[in-house]
Predict the 3D structure of the following.
Amino acid sequence: MKITVIELKNILSSELEKGALDHIDESTNLEHFGLDSVGFFTMIYKIEDACNIEFDEETLDQLTLKSTLGDLLSVITAKGVEVVPA
Amino acid sequence: MDKRKVVVTAVNACCSLGHDIDTVWHNLKQGNSGIKPISRFNAERHFTKIGGEIDDAYRDILDLTGQSAVSKNGELSLLCGQGLFLQENAKGIFESYPDIGLILGSGLGGLYFSEDNLKKMYETGGKRIHPMTVPNVDPNSIVSALSRRWQIHGHQFSISTACSSGANAIGTALDLIRNGRLDCIVTGGVEYTFTTLLYAGFDQLRAMSRCNDTPETSCKPFSQGRDGFIMGEGAAMLVLESEERALSRGATILAELTGYGVTGGAYHVVKPIEDGSDGKKAMALALSDAGIDSDNIDFISPHGTGTALNDQAEYNAMAALFGPKTSDIPVVPIKQLTGHMLGASGALEAVHTVKCIEDQIVTPIAYYQAEANQKLNISVGEANQHSIKHAMSNSFGFGNNNVSLIMSQYHH
């Protein structure tokens, strides 16, 4: 299973505030970029849909608005999804 | 008290003929068709395999930044609005009108969103559907999304009256501005129609043409041998303003919206009243609202779906209202070229009518063979210059929802 960086960026940009992708790094909490709880659920759904995976309840409980982009990438790759350049 | 004059200051449209008004208008003037074999799903098992799909390349020019969940209907609305607000005449309307309104017609709302997630629900045992499904399936989801995007702070609502939705939205906006509730409203209609459920439904209703080998002339409004409509999709929008406010901000006025008539036939779920009496009454009410009579009409944009029953009823209505003049007034049934955009069709036809008034032109269609004793003045192949002071646009929806709009050349 693979997801391209562009696909991932499109998902993030649809949920984060405008321009967030220009400043985001892997260590910043996602809520600092305008992510709210509804946007968070939606982002998770879109990643599951794009990667054809399903996070278990335990993983979802660990992911919160306080999570960083790095946390998110970790759980994606832990499901065997490879993030590829294009 | 005199009614306030309501004027049209900007229009835009996206449909099978193009993604913006300039392209759509160019193709309408040429009589070009947007009807082709269906590409979005496999239509082989259907009676009808053709339609007026919008080119999906629209997504390349659509700015969806920050749009968490947008239905396909919402995307078409955003595309249409994005182009509208780039126009010189529409720039600055949000600064001029803090309480601007948004009223759109849609017959289906977020049907595609429903259908897409229903499939996923069954595929995943009810587990994994889009978290924003509920807010995206109701008809007002489109207006709601656009209001956030464009910061609409006045009246904002949807009207859903099947194929007359767009026309009813425009008529309602006319009334609200006339009565002084608002000074400016963005109005029109939107419909994303090529969902497998809807297409199969119309196919089973045997309402669509089966002339699959001749897509460009498959829909034959008012012609001999017509066998149904062809599906289309898209959005069309108009900026309506009170005359005094439009003039005060220096806007160029394209046309005046002068009349709105509505009737309900209360007759049948899909069939029209055969003698067209309810449609005739809507047209007469619109004329009365505009303060003119049938002799003043120089142009008709009919509902003209290409189905046997609808066109017969509309012809009967026109013949009863206009008498011998029926065969003289130019009639332009553009659904042959664009496909039937259902809830957006009345809006597209209003936009087309405004453009015809602005350019004083009657656009052609690709095919017309008059029925015996039912000759209409329909141009084929070439556009003609024509003096249009007052024009009528009709939209008749399932359930006998009949709407007629009058648009007029503007005189200060």
Summary: Chain B touches chain A through twelve residues (CB under 8 Å). The mean pLDDT of chain B is 94.
